[in-house]
Design brief:
The complex is a heterodimer.
Chain A lengths: L2 H12 L5 H20 L4 H8 L2 H19 L3 H14 L4 H41 L10 H45 L12
Helix pairs in contact in A: 1-2, 1-4, 4-5, 4-7, 5-7, 6-7
Chain B lengths: L2 H18 L2 E2 H11 L7 H10 L3 E6 L7 E6 L1 H25 L5
Antiparallel strand pairs in B: 1-3, 2-3
Helix pairs in contact in B: 1-4
Classes of the chains: A mainly alpha, B alpha+beta.
């Protein structure tokens, strides 16, 4: 197998996670690079060396694509993929920021836990107390069922509030992470254009 | 040489080349590797990104050797970007040089 074919195969393998259309577009670009280079009198080996390892090239394309995807629509899946791709290219000073993100994740987890437990606990308490209230014969061991119904409902409402907060925080966290990854990409690539001034917030 | 250095100024280099004339991909890569030892495979992904950002666009042109070639050219926005970045880069370089040379300490 020629060096060129080997290069293209490795590039294709590296790009397999991209949508087919995007992948073919990239492969066509690189293919024309070789055509152009050979026409200009360079040999395959030199052309490969000038492009760098196909795996590195693929990683760079994938990171660019992942960041683009995640900033268009920051679902947790896409955000994670962008981070992963970013780490692969060595963009992220993740180690330094690790503790910041870990803390943020813990705070979020605490709020989410509070939300779930209050909503469920409150609802169960309210329902049980309501049953005890309506049917005094059932022994639920509460002295003032009405008070428990009220308490349970308030707790569930508080839980609901926490849920709203948790969902909001999750979105913010996702956006924050995407912005952070982007910032890293921009730092490394030297891009400093204020693209989103008065824009998409 | 420090990879971060190169990556940081690579888009400036690509755009500087395109500010003089439209180029096809190989032309850009070879012009850059002539001056900077680039083996990090970043020129092509960079072209894609700059195109997505509308700093440059592409067109096909017949070639005497082989199939039509895809040429890259600067957009109006790209030219404005270049003018700004060159000024910034020159100031930055001056600043770094005077720190390194210990002027005005």
């Amino acid at each position: 197998m020629s060096i060129y074919h080997d290069y293209m195969e490795r590039l294709r393998a590296g790009l397999k996670s991209l949508p087919a259309e995007r992948r073919e577009e990239i492969l066509a670009d690189i293919e024309s690079y070789f055509t152009e280079g050979l026409a200009d009198g360079a040999d395959e080996e030199k052309l490969c060396a000038m492009l760098g390892a196909p795996e590195a090239l693929a990683k760079e394309y994938i990171a660019g694509h992942a960041v683009e995807e995640a900033s268009d629509n920051p679902t947790p899946r896409k955000v994670l993929r962008a981070i992963w791709a970013g780490v692969g290219v060595g963009f992220l000073n993740l180690f330094i920021m690790f503790w910041v993100w870990l803390t943020a994740a813990f705070v979020w987890f605490a709020v989410a836990l509070l939300a779930v437990s209050c909503t469920l606990g409150g609802a169960v308490a309210a329902v049980l107390a309501a049953i005890a209230w309506v049917y005094p014969a059932i022994p639920v061991f509460v002295d003032f069922p009405a008070l428990y119904v009220f308490g349970g409902v308030s707790m569930a409402a508080f839980g609901g509030l926490c849920s709203v907060l948790a969902i909001g925080l999750l979105k913010k966290l996702g956006k924050g992470i995407v912005r952070y990854v982007k910032m890293n990409v921009e730092l490394v690539t030297g891009k400093r254009r204020e693209r989103s001034v008065g824009g998409n917030d | 040489m420090n990879v971060q250095f190169k990556k940081g100024v690579l888009d400036l280099c690509v755009i500087a080349l395109l500010s003089r004339k439209d180029c096809y991909g190989f032309e850009l890569v070879s012009a850059i590797t002539r001056h900077i030892n680039m083996s990090e495979g970043t020129v092509y992904p960079l072209l894609k990104r700059l195109k997505d950002e509308k700093l440059l666009d592409t067109y096909l042109m017949e070639s005497t050797e082989g199939p039509p070639r895809k040429y890259y050219r600067l957009t109006g926005e790209g030219k404005m970007w270049y003018a700004r970045q060159v000024t910034e880069w020159r100031e930055f370089r001056k600043g770094v040089d005077s720190i390194i040379d210990g002027e005005g300490d």
